[in-house]
């Protein structure tokens, strides 16, 4: 099954119509039979304002392909996605909204994705280092007769102090939805494709993320590559191949997928538009709801709500604690031989406090959940 959606740059150059070794047509590439069925579904058509993606695109030449895709994205961009207040969604409708959570490290482009989807500035976009997103926050849309909530989250970061707050915020938000009975349609994990090596923080963050989801939820994980415009096609392809075989192996093996994203198809015809991905996640969830393949909960939701665990006891919580303890050890080692230790001491105290607080604060979380 093809796993990287949207990047087969060489195929573009060599002309359409030819199959890749993975059986795809070399353009948008995702073409397992199941994917194809989703793209052709009534659900997908409705979300896209009555148009099936790639409608009328015959794979018979680059010009024609590019023209077709431009036409499609012009239409999808021209289709209104009205922003509506969350309260009116959460309290006002009989049907569950389609919830899609966007996660990933600080600077990955989560808030930008929300804005690109809305085609207006809803979330505050930061720079690559400092997170501007302090809380887990949903943005409501009315689309194709459905309510959709895109959830922006604060990403974790190299400054370890904030990781506990991030996990707690997201886990709490998810637990609350589960308690209310609303499924989470999918999680888009954004990954900055321009960062030139897999930093320790990325490895840890993805491991914690995996534990948060649990293997049963991997097929609802959509890894989105952001910052694709900042790397060459060759680098993007090489990097993705490496990540697929190492860091993302388990998630992909469990049914997850990778998508190379762009927000602007005027200039870039090889990647997947953020709107298209969001609608694909939504449509595949809706189709699943009509069959036995219902979107189940994330591991963290069951752990917190069904098993009444504190955050520290959950798999994601344990992984975070392990990471924090390891980092603490690293700082302690650095301290020996450092003249001015004030800065290090501050960091270390912060981590110690976080490790302690993880248990007491999650008791508060459990109490809050009990009231729902
Ligand atoms: N060139 C480029 N910049 C991006 C992309 N996605 C995000 N950015 C920039 O990266 C920075 C961080 O984005 P933001 O959405 O705040 O990241 P967040 O911390 O994940 O919410 C901002 O300056 C964005 O404009 C992308 O795909 N390409
Ligand atoms: Mg943000």
UniProtKB/TrEMBL annotation:
Q: Which InterPro entries does the protein's record reference?
A: GTP-bd, P-loop_NTPase
Quote the Pfam families the UniProt record gives.
MMR_HSR1
Top-level division of the source organism's lineage:
Eukaryota
Tell me the ranges covered by the G domain, including all copies.
100-160
> GO molecular function terms here?
GTP binding
Instruction: Enumerate the residue ranges of region (Disordered).
Output: 1-27
Instruction: Please identify the protein, giving its name as recorded.
Output: G domain-containing protein
